[in-house]
Amino acid sequence: MGACYSKKSPEQESIFFKVQTCIEKNILINLEILTLTEDFKKNITNIDSPYFKIKDLKVNALILALFYNSLECFKYIHETLKASIDSMEKIFNEQKTSAIEIICMRNCPDILDYYLPIYEKTCSEEVVIEEVVESLNFTNNTEERKSRIIGSTYTPVQRACELGNLNIISRIYKYYKEKSFIPIALDFDYQNETTGENCPLISCRTCNYTMIRFLHTTCQANFRLLNKQGENAVQILAAANKKKNFKEFYECMVYLVLSVGVDFTYNYEETLLLLETEKSIMFFEKKLKEKGIEIDKSFLEEKYQLIKVDQPRPLKEEQLDDYQGKDFNFVKLYDEVMSDADYEDVSVILKDSRNATPFVSILNDLPPN
Question: Taking the model in full, what pTM does it have?
Answer without folding.
Answer: 0.73
